[in-house]
């Protein structure tokens, strides 16, 4: 039960991680999945450590609990389901949203609940919860690679637990006094130098191990929301729901400048800047653009675009699940914000949908990627290539191959005469 060997003075977070991972493997304490390196490590006795959460008042009082999907936290997820609490689990790497709510089938047996607590059960028995799902989390349970008795935590280095908490703050799902618990082996409780901590790092209030429960009484403030100037463009692209949160916070007047954003615009004309210019052109006065509006049907197009008229290059994106309260101006503002400027916007508010025309399939697919996870008026929008566009490129390629093969097999000296309609 000895802690991992302390890292040398001046050690980095990664040095601490490597020491803990190496010790778990070398001492025989590591458990499936292995090796534990680059993971929130599972360990011998994790289920025992998880079961001790049932002795905490903060668990018994909680009605809605967020638990990370890591293997060593499986016992906490099971305890929450057995206690009939609402269990929220973050989606893997936040690729498809923020939370999945685990919903066991009616009359679930103990064995079914055990399955629901596993990674496979999370996939089979969960429903997504979006930004406007009104989550009110009473308790947060996270995994750790290392943690100190002061409550200072080191994760596996990808920053998802810190980001999840910051996003919950931004959407009002947690409060300043919402308790945070971590489950680790005794050897993972180590001294951590305070200078290793940053203002975006999540701290913990309770540490549960196979042998003890530590109340940290941590005084260091938890993240107060998303620190946008530390968010990279790469992370924004990886986490679609982060784009929606950024859009919402910008609407309230908050500074949402990303990491390196100022220098990018100062040194070069970026694709994003060009898209901003395109949107500015697309939102000129209606008289100059030939727009028409009848009831809730609205079409706006760029009259300077010569390829809009039937050249076959235009690709259409379908936007559905638009709430009745959302106006076309709100969608246009979001398109500008997410650099998804269309050549033409066909707004069909009465049918809760819109169609966006782009110059080619690549641009359309890029727009779909950018708008994925976008929430307007309380709904997460459905964004995809319009049905008649999805296989359009392949059909055109197939026809080209057929024509080439037909021409290739013509007898020498023959001539293809154009067909004239009579």
From TrEMBL:
Domain of life: Eukaryota
SUPFAM superfamilies listed in its UniProt record: NagB/RpiA/CoA transferase-like, RNA-binding domain, RBD
The keyword RNA-binding is annotated on this UniProt entry: yes
Gene Ontology cellular component annotations, sorted alphabetically: cytoplasm
CDD domains cross-referenced by the UniProt entry: RRM_MTHFSD
Gene Ontology MF, one: RNA binding
Residues in RRM domain copies: 315-388
Keywords (A to Z) from UniProt: RNA-binding
PROSITE patterns listed in its UniProt record: RRM (PS50102)
PANTHER family (UniProt xref): 5-FORMYLTETRAHYDROFOLATE CYCLO-LIGASE-RELATED (PTHR13017), METHENYLTETRAHYDROFOLATE SYNTHASE DOMAIN-CONTAINING PROTEIN (PTHR13017:SF0)
Listed name of the protein: Methenyltetrahydrofolate synthase domain-containing protein
Species of the source: Cepphus grylle (Black guillemot)
């Amino acid at each position: 039960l000895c802690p991992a060997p302390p890292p040398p003075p001046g050690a980095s977070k990664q040095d601490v991680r490597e020491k803990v991972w190496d010790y778990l493997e070398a001492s025989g304490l590591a458990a499936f999945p292995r090796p534990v390196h680059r993971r929130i490590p599972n360990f011998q006795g994790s289920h025992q450590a998880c079961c001790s959460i049932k002795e905490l008042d903060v668990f018994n009082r909680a009605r809605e609990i967020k638990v990370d999907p890591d293997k060593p936290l499986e016992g906490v997820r099971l305890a929450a389901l057995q206690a009939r609490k609402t269990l929220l689990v973050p989606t893997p790497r936040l690729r498809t949203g923020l939370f999945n709510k685990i919903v066991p089938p009616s009359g679930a047996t103990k064995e079914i609940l055990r399955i629901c607590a596993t990674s496979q059960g999370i996939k089979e028995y969960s429903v997504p919860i979006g930004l406007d799902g009104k989550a009110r989390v009473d308790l947060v349970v996270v995994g750790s690679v290392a943690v100190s008795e002061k409550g200072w935590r080191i994760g596996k280095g990808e920053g998802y637990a810190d980001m999840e908490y910051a996003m919950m703050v931004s959407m009002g799902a947690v409060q300043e006094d919402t308790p945070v618990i971590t489950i680790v082996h005794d050897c993972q409780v180590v001294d951590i130098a305070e200078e290793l901590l940053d203002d975006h790092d999540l701290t913990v209030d309770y540490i549960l191990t196979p042998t003890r429960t530590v109340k940290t009484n941590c005084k260091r403030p938890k993240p107060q929301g998303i620190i946008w100037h530390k968010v990279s463009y790469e992370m924004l692209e990886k986490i679609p729901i982060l784009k929606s949160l950024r859009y919402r916070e910008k609407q309230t007047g908050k500074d949402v400048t990303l990491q390196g954003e100022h220098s990018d615009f100062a040194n070069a004309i970026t694709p994003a800047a060009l898209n901003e210019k395109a949107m500015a052109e697309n939102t000129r006065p209606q008289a100059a653009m030939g727009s028409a509006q009848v009831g809730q049907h609205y079409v706006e197009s760029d009259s300077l675009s010569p390829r809009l008229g039937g050249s076959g290059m235009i690709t259409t994106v379908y936007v559905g699940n638009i709430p009745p309260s959302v106006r076309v101006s709100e969608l246009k503002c979001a398109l500008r914000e997410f650099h998804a400027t269309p050549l033409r916007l066909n707004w069909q508010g009465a049918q809760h949908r819109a169609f966006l025309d782009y110059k080619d399939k690549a641009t359309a697919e890029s727009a779909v990627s950018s708008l994925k996870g976008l929430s307007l008026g309380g709904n997460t929008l459905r964004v995809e290539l319009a049905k008649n566009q999805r296989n359009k490129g392949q059909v055109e390629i197939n026809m080209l191959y057929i024509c080439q093969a037909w021409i290739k097999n013509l007898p020498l000296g023959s001539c293809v005469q154009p067909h004239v309609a009579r």
